[in-house]
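[scheduler] slot 2 assigned
[scheduler] job type: sequence-to-structure, two independent chains
[scheduler] chain ordering preserved from manifest
[runner] begin chain α
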Amino acid sequence: MRVLAALSGGVDSAVAAARAVDAGHDVVGVHMALSRDRAQLRSGSRGCCSIEDAGDARRAADVLGIPYYVWDLSERFEDTVVADFLAEYEAGRTPNPCVRCNEHIKFDALLDKALALGFDAVCTGHYAAAGTDDAGAPVLRRAADRAKDQSYVLAVMGPTRLSRAMFPLGDVVSKDVVRAEAAARGLSVSAKPDSYDICFVADGDTRGFLRDRLGSRPGEVVDADGTVLGAHDGAYGFTVGQRKGLQLGRPAPDGRPRYVLAIEPVNNRVVVGAAEDLDVDRVEATDAVWFGDPPQDWVDCRLQVRAHGAAVPAQARATAGGGVEIAVSGPLRGVAAGQSAVLYGGPDDATVLGQGTVARAGRTAARNTDAGARA
């Protein structure tokens, strides 16, 4: 097959491309330039897609003996991933930019361009397993290395685009194996630090990034009864479940920590309360993507709402208008609107059934702490 290998400049994508070459595919490497600032530099292990990363990707392609190109997708990235990030936080929700990047960039803009140029598939260094079931339908599964598994952020791509994706690192048992393989192949990125946090917030200061883009908007921090406890300079800088950085002027009456329960963007208020007020047993999600027929009746599954969070027992069913209704039977706390709700099933609960974007979360009984009930 003709394969377009996305080379980020890191060790994972380099080894994935190398494995695609070893498999006999006709491989071409491409680095996605996502920053409008051509002088952007990487800050240690923070950020990615910098000018240094482009150079590392080129060197990896040279070692592998494959053609190499740089595609400028910065405008598309700014107009989709960054714009969505800002709009979601401004609306009091908590987005996952990695999910949106996979949705709009890697498996939309990049894949569409690859297919238009005659490539059969896109290869990336994601830790996930792509295959087919007994009927030949595309299946997305967790990676062998559960600690590095990225199926959560890939579930949004759906079965059609999954059929055009290759994840050669799905069977790797640890990152140490990848680094050792890179070193053995003579790839200079073998010891390069992993990137983490949000790639376009290279200094790791998400609240500062939001303040720079959205401006200062002072408001109140209140408890569930409306009592003013403190102040903030932008409700967009908070997320449901947050404990640190609340800057409250007084402790709770019982002396226990307070957590963010809700963000009210219209009133510009942040509501805080006790940890147990974050417990949920129901989740509603929109914009569902299914890897199979949408279940009309309740199906047993496991629900994951954070990229590196635990999956808890649940039941789910499709709802009218492309939504998902989820009844949670395991312990789940601090679910924010805007997060991805990914459902897993199969004999070992490692197969992605579908996903949606959280619209509301709360409790069937007791006082409601609805993540979507925001003014």
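[runner] end chain α
[runner] begin chain β
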Amino acid sequence: MSDQHGHGHGSRAWRGLRHALAPHSHDSADKTDAALESSSRGLRVLGISFAVLVITAVVQAVIVAFSGSVALLGDTLHNFADALTAIPLAIAFSFGRRAATRRFTYGYGRAEDLAGIVIVLLIAASAGLAGYEAVGRLLQPQDVHALAWVAGAGLIGFIGNELVARYRIKVGREIGSAALVADGLHARTDGFTSLAVLIGAGGAALGFPIADPIVGLAITLAICFVLRDAAREIYHRLMDAVDPALVEQAEQTLRAVPGVLRAGSVRLRWIGHVLHAEVDIRVDHHLSLIEAHAVAVEAEHQLIHHLPRLRAATVHADPDGPEGADHHARLLSHR
């Protein structure tokens, strides 16, 4: 049994007053508004972070041109790749705002996961190119010029990436977007690799020009670690993995609902940056259909209130009894 619930976006006082007067008024229009607002926030984050990272990378590219630093080149390439990840994410957020259809009955939220695959490929490409350039410079060493400018560019890269990382992670966690959080963590690691450019510049200044390509290889290795973490995050989403703590929270919530004798299976999945749930509950077999439905409605209501970013739940109520009865006997051969 399923009923649609959601939360509107007004002032805190208005939300509290509306809930007090009509505690069950959670309609699909409210939920659609919430999802659209989340996507709009994601698009704003992507637009701003894209501009910051492009400006950062362009400044670094100019310095690469006259300094010849391969460490800075690797960092610049990575920053350009990080900026470009905003494009597939922006497309996914925009696509995910489309309404569900008879073919795509759950909507288009999973487009974010597809964007995550593109992000992983971009990170892999930047790692490969940076590593190639670093190895080439090790085999054919070249002097690095304008070391002060190279060091300054590394510092600029750190500041730009850290600002973007904090913004993406904050909003990504607030709206429940794994792809946006992963992209923010990616930007944070980019910031620390930018600081590594300072080490390369310092080594060159002390008479060790080989420090520059070595740092370039270290940056490549750091990118590979980011690649591993991002790939794992996207893999979990594609495989419908959720935090086990959410499942435990859902079970505890169901057990506390009046009329629920036992909580059965709980299945949660992310679709874009919202959660969907399918749960089974056991109710007294003496209840009427209307009474059992009321228990299921209250179960969904409580789940939406207690699970962050849960947009909808399908609650299946099974009669608990009479003793020895198997209400799913006809389905055993199909399971």
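[runner] end chain β
[qc] chain β: Strands lie at 262-271, 274-284, 310-320.
[scheduler] slot 2 released
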